[in-house]
Design a protein that fits this description.
Layout (H helix, E strand, L loop, with lengths): L2 E19 L2 E15 L3 E5 L13 H17 L9 H5 L6 H19 L3 H5 L5 E3 L1 E4 L5 H14 L3 E5 L6 H11 L5 E4 L9 H5 L9 E2 L7 H10 L4 E3 L6 H9 L5 E4 L7 H13 L4 E3 L6 H10 L32 E3 L12 H7 E8 L1
Helix pairs in contact: 1-3, 5-6, 9-10
The structure holds 2-succinylbenzoate and magnesium ion.
The site of magnesium ion has 7 residues, from loops.
Length: 368
């Protein structure tokens, strides 16, 4: 393939309800889409992070500069454009996995469309549909939390994840268990809000039979997570701390995690995400697909990944309506607690032009 044009399309889409985590509150999905035009086909992707570096060090304005000044010039210099060459070509740019993932995914979408191959087929998917979990933000009161969880369960979600932070942990977990029972698949996500000094406190979650506790301690501190895992029986799951397959191998070897959250954006794209899956699966460590409140563009590709054999736990791959009154693609709709894996070429979806126009701020060519 030959690269002809790369365009950044800013989008701002209101969330149906504010999403509060230990690192902040989101009310709008405010990011950019990457639109890649080649001589063979076009591709789309979505930058997964936010305007502020609260979840990770990357952010919208920074990623644009990284793409424009460091990633695209290296990719444009390749004699042939194909997806497998992107990571080696951009390895000299340290970090910036989310920006790299956006570029790689848009090129992969174009490449697969040129072959007529769905992303699910390319990745090695073994499922036609994937079970949907839902990530429930920190609420103002326990009563509001119980209402929110009740609503999601009525819609059919098969697993609940509660966002937690110091002061909002034991109480909400106890209340949800009391109301919905021991059998509800339930897990928590702290987004790095605790320290090892909280180990005895976190141990009190053990009695609630949680599937896992996600990223309880500071990012990249595998040693501390391993020490915590020695003191609690709830399986530790890592999100922010795993940036590639090598980190995943180290974390498993150290017993710093017994479950892996795979977010393609966080590890630089779907090729590395598949390697993360492979490493964990080879060790018998269950994986599940995380989310970043994606629009239909990011969601479609995540669903393809979540159909791989090692994804044995429901992911944060919820329906479009959990996030948006109107998505920028055909919406993903929950059927019997599952979402369908797209089976048309590439990521399988495209922005709906009329809807995209309404949610688009600035459009800018990065490369012509
Ligand atoms: O830590 O998994 C996380 C959303 C934004 C940033 C980080 C996280 C999340 C979620 C929501 O938990 C997952 C989703 O529904 O997309
Ligand atoms: Mg997380």
């Amino acid at each position: 393939m030959k690269l002809e044009r790369v365009e950044i399309v800013h989008v701002a889409i209101p969330l149906v309800s504010p999403f509060r985590t230990s690192f902040g509150t989101m009310t709008t999905k405010d990011t950019f889409l990457l639109h890649v035009v080649t001589d063979a086909a076009e591709g789309w992707s979505e930058f997964a992070a936010d305007p502020e570096p609260g979840y990770c060090s990357e952010f919208v304005a920074g990623a644009e500069i990284v793409l424009r000044d460091f990633l695209l010039p290296r990719v444009a210099a390749l004699p042939v454009l194909d997806t497998a060459h992107l990571a080696p070509a951009t390895a000299g740019v340290k970090g910036h996995e989310l920006a790299k993932a956006a570029l790689e995914t848009a090129v992969l979408d174009a490449e697969l469309r040129s072959y007529g191959m769905p992303l699910a087929t390319y990745l090695g998917a073994v499922r036609e549909r994937v079970p949907a979990g839902v990530s429930v933000g920190i609420q103002r009161t326990i009563a509001e939390l119980l209402d929110a969880v009740e609503g999601y369960l009525a819609e059919g979600y098969v697993r609940i994840k509660l966002k937690i932070e110091p002061g909002w942990d034991l109480e909400p977990v106890r209340a949800v268990r009391e109301r919905f029972g021991r059998d509800l698949p339930l897990q928590v996500d702290a987004n790095t809000a605790y320290t090892l000094a909280d180990a005895e406190h976190l141990r009190r979650l053990d009695e609630y039979g949680l599937l896992l506790i996600e990223e309880p301690l500071e990012e990249n501190n595998l040693h501390a997570h391993a020490l915590l895992q020695q003191r609690i029986t709830t399986p530790v799951c890592l999100d922010e701390s795993l940036h590639n397959a090598r980190d995943t191998a180290s974390a498993i070897a150290l017993d710093a995690c017994r479950v892996v959250n795979v977010k393609p954006a966080r590890v630089g794209g779907y090729l590395e995400a598949r390697r993360v899956h492979d490493v964990a699966h080879a060790h018998g460590v269950p994986v599940w697909c995380g989310g970043m409140l994606e629009t239909g563009i990011g969601r479609a590709a995540n669903l393809a990944l979540a159909a791989l054999p090692g994804f044995t736990l429901p992911g944060d791959t919820s329906a479009s309506s959990r996030y948006f009154a109107e998505d920028i693609t055909e919406p993903f709709v929950l059927v019997d607690g599952h979402l369908p894996v797209p089976r048309t070429p590439g990521i399988g979806v495209q922005p709906l032009p009329e809807v995209l126009r309404r949610f688009t701020g600035e459009r800018r060519d990065l490369y012509v």
